[in-house]
Write a structure and sequence with these properties.
229 residues; alpha+beta; 4-stranded mixed β-sheet; two-stranded antiparallel sheet
Length: 229
């Protein structure tokens, strides 16, 4: 982690990709939430127990805001009532449940990565809360606010830890026989893999797709890494 000045001369925190992945993994391990096998991460316990945040999952927010974190001691995490009611209803779709869990994981990432910005005496000025707009959270690494980009990366790492995600992806592809990477987005292998990982990690198809792109299993315009297996 380092700090760099933005266009206004204000210091901002810079994390590289591997650093965020490691922070998320270390945080889950310290919280006792690293599972023995790939599967659902309890992000509610991460926020409420390990990070010690107070929560309000049924706040009346503008439709454009999915949630926000107030940086106080302890931090306070707020999630939209409309999203929570839909996601927690009987028979809620995986997409809705995944979006709700992604919002909580996104706020957990803000706490893990950005609390120091708002600590008493911190040099970097800022508002007491980061409001997470629907468009920014859904934009992944294309978000405009640098804090949202980092929180989206942390969210993915919390929901689908790299070591577990990659290991299960490879094991699943092994069952298909020889495959060449990246998979075609419309192939039966890609669709089946995305469905499987979404169910396994209880994450939305969009979040899983970003993760598969990140590690070279699907075509990625950012082209981090590709390969053949």
């Amino acid at each position: 982690m380092k700090t760099i000045p933005d266009g206004r001369g204000v210091r901002r925190i810079w994390y590289d990709f591997d650093e965020i992945e490691q922070i998320a993994a270390d945080t889950l391990a310290a919280a006792g939430l690293w599972p023995d096998a790939p599967g659902r991460i309890d992000v509610e316990s991460l926020v409420e127990t390990h990070q010690g945040a107070s929560t309000d999952y049924f706040a009346d927010l503008d439709d454009s805001i999915l949630g926000f974190t107030v940086f106080r001691t302890p931090p306070h995490v707020v999630v939209s009532r409309a999203l929570s009611e839909l996601a927690l209803a009987d028979g809620a779709s995986l997409g809705l449940r995944g979006r709700w869990r992604a919002t909580i994981a996104h706020e957990a990432a803000h706490i893990a990565l950005h609390s120091r910005l708002y600590a008493t005496g911190a040099r970097t000025p800022g508002l007491p809360a980061v409001r997470c707009m629907r468009a920014e959270l859904e934009a992944g690494e294309e978000a405009r606010d640098w804090r949202e980009v980092q929180a989206n990366m942390g969210m993915a790492a919390f929901l689908m830890p790299r070591a577990l995600f990659v290991a299960d992806t490879i094991a699943t592809l092994d069952a298909y026989g020889p495959t060449f990477l990246p998979l075609a987005r419309t192939s039966s292998e890609a669709r089946g893999l995305t469905d499987h990982l979404s169910e396994l990690f209880e994450a939305s198809h969009q979040a899983v797709t970003y993760r598969l792109q990140t590690f070279g299993f699907l075509p990625d315009p950012r082209a981090r890494r590709v390969g053949k297996r």
